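User: Can you help me understand a structure? I only have the sequence.
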Amino acid sequence: MKDGGDERYAEGAAPPSALAGVRVLEVADEQGEYCGRLLSGMGADVIKVEPPGGSSTRAYPPFAGDVVHHDRSLYFWHYNVGKRSVTMDILRPEGQRLFRRLAATAAVVVETFSPGQLDDLGVGAVALRGADPGLIVASITPFGQGGPYRAFPGTDLTAMALGGSAAVCGYSPAPDGAYDTPPLVCEGNQALQTAAIYAAHGILAALLHREAGGSGQHVDVSVEEAAASITEWHVPMYTFADAVVPRGILGLQCRARDGVWVSCIIPEFFGPHVLETLLGLLDQDGLAGPLRDAQAGAADDRAEMRRRLEDAVAAFVARRDAEEVYRLGQSHGFPWAPVRTADEALDDPHLHDRGFFVEVRHEELDATYPYAGAPFVASRTPWWFARRPPLLGEHNAEVYGAELGMTAADMARLAAAGVI
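Assistant: Let's start by predicting it. Here is the structure, written out as tokens:
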């Protein structure tokens, strides 16, 4: 916890929560699990509805202790911490009846089925909201519920490619304008996570609308549109300047003396004061003089000046260890940083000072593991994890029995039939 230490995690005492009392049903794969994680951290009771064999993401490696098991996927752990799990075969009529019954107790449903698939099963947004007009249904799909691509399959890479993000990521072109490497995208499902964040935004807005006296609604999220939104200023650059932004124009990665890469961003639209500050830094190694001469002799050749600057910065970095470069750049107002690996980030004193990493206890493994914690600090309604990631079907008896009132015999019958 970022406000008051980690004690509440260890004790299990719930802090004041923004979404306390809000039940969310999550019927989602990797497209929507992060949305559920965000809502859970804000206090919602997120019930993950999984097929009897488990969510597909339970099979994603790596696994804790290298033991391949549906309850040990580290990928699943990260995206599903704080949730509860029930099993249900929603493709079968009895499962659909059970889902409708469970949905009647919820405020929000998050789903990632293909457009129209849940409608065909009688448990889509139209049917569920017909029974409960106050229900909020958030659908996250590759291309959204409408449009000519709605039925197309897609992945994170598909969205990054079609949305334009991949076209502006990668290494800069050679002086002749040609690329010798393909476009690159970041690891870690950036488009899917962006779409999940947008879905959470839409759900929060829908909850506020309903609280103000409005009805529920259908929140339709397209992963492609999410990817298109993170091209940032490249679309208006083309619209207003008729210019296609080349890949890597803002990125300068330099290898330091100790072999660590350092991200040394040089502002593209630097003003005279910014340039002079950079030249002052490079003066420490006698690298600024030739740049000042070039600036005086060819002030109108911005591209050539930038290339010379990048060469000088690379030479400056190569003579120092990455940490020294980081501190020097920051002390001069430049947003430079070493490229850290995950294990190095775990030792970051700044992240620890802010309480970002949270220790979560896994009782069944008799072990405690660090998790990435809150994506924001809220002083009155702090983020927290209500529980460790759920075991498959761990909360069947709790949800179906204690909360829906089903008998042990009913649950045994459904389990024997493969419905739960």
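Now, to help you interpret it: DSSP finds 18 helices and eleven strands in the chain. The chain has two domains: 7-231+390-416, 253-343. Let me know which part you'd like to focus on.
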